[in-house]
Amino acid sequence: MSSTQTAVHLGHRFLDALPELSVPWQAEGTPDPQLLALDDEVAAGLGLDPAWLRSPSGLGFLTGTRVPDGARPVAQGYAGHQFGNYSPRLGDGRALLLGDLAGVDLHLKGSGRTPWSRGGDGLAVVGPMLREFVVGTAMHALGIPTTRSLAVVGTGRVVHRETPQPGAVLARTAASHLRVGSFQLARAAEDVDLLRRLADHAIALHVPAAADAEVPALALYDHVVGVQAELLARWMLVGFVHGVMNTDNMTISGETIDYGPCAFLDAHDADTVFSSIDSGGRYRYGNQPLAAQWNLARFAEALLPLVHEDPEQGIPAAVAVLETFLPRYEAAWTAGMRAKLGLAEDADPALATDLQALLDANHPDHTGFFRALSTAARGDVQPARDLVLDLAAFDAWTTRWLATGPDADAMERVNPVYVPRNHLVQEALEAATAGDLAPMDQLVDVLRHPFDERPGQDRYAAPGPAGTYVTYCGT
Ligand SMILES: Nc1ncnc2c1ncn2[C@@H]1O[C@H](COP(=O)(O)OP(=O)(O)OP(=O)(O)O)[C@@H](O)[C@H]1O
Question: What is the pTM of this model?
């Protein structure tokens, strides 16, 4: 196999800044590594040669078993609220931060036990790691901030879940792996110096201008509230359900992280839940903005000692910022809806909220309906009309909307034809787990160009049969 890879120099910025949150660690060996998926574009962004990554030495790099000279992999510590309950010790129980490269973190998932593993085996399996690859790739193509999957490598190890599963390691990149839970751990340590270094590190990476603010931690908080408001609006507009919005899965960068029990809506329904363990519907589609706000309140609590030396006295300033979350979310959502509906800047905002009410009442296929509206903007309302039950309400809304002269071309640039449909992802992952990668490769190929309609590929645009949502709790 040809290889033009020169030496890889992995930095260790997290370990240098925050040794207390870092446990130097190594990956477990992989008996028989086999490449299952590789994103050449992500590789190129890191300055890595895809041909080398496919070679035995590249697979050693991607699984953490052959670490470049000078690299210092660590398991990162963090805490977090999971489904509302606080866990003081989470951390990378099956993951490692290999280091940083080209300004981003390179992280492994499924690389073996660490001191944060608690009772877990430290491993990951093929299906869920490929799910992260497929859905993360789709999210990036949709223009939504996200960690990115570089590769999934089958380990050749059998992993014991409900049934024996083939093991895998995911290699992914992120602007950083700083989470709300990272701050919760530093706050719980009652070490203000550690908390300050963590905030300074986050500021240096994600919002350098905050360093000059009167209260840098408050400026950091304001930034995170803003990027999360934008992110949540993007999720809601595209019909994405994250599924496990615990505080350890909320990034400081504003990137989507951890594609566990996630999926895209078929029928638009605020009560949609995909995670089999989310019995109370805490992270249902329609509750996501409020779940994010709740997480941001926990972030504020963690930051309080940096807002004021008497944390209690920092509360009003932090609450004032937190209270901007929903207005910022609504502004981002309104702007996004304006784009999805091909409206001019000065269009009546009630067009968006009235359409939302129509979607809530009629449950059309989310992705298909918005795409069909661009056909309506070209003069054929029937495809959209076929998706709703309340035809009088649809006709009334459509008449108002069409009178604004919506821009169909602009709409087609923001309303995807293809999203990772739950049933297709499931089908592809089951095939891959059984050794056939072709369905996944074909699916990823379509998802990389979500706005470009492809003749003969209708099955990738269609919703699954009603009632066949796969609820999911695999890891
Ligand atoms: N098989 C396992 N062995 C050890 N720890 C695990 C295992 N699975 C999950 N964990 C740990 O449980 C916690 C919650 O897991 P979760 O599934 O949210 O994270 P993850 O998918 O492993 O990682 P990330 O959030 O980085 O994408 C984390 O601390 C994670 O490291």
Answer: 0.97
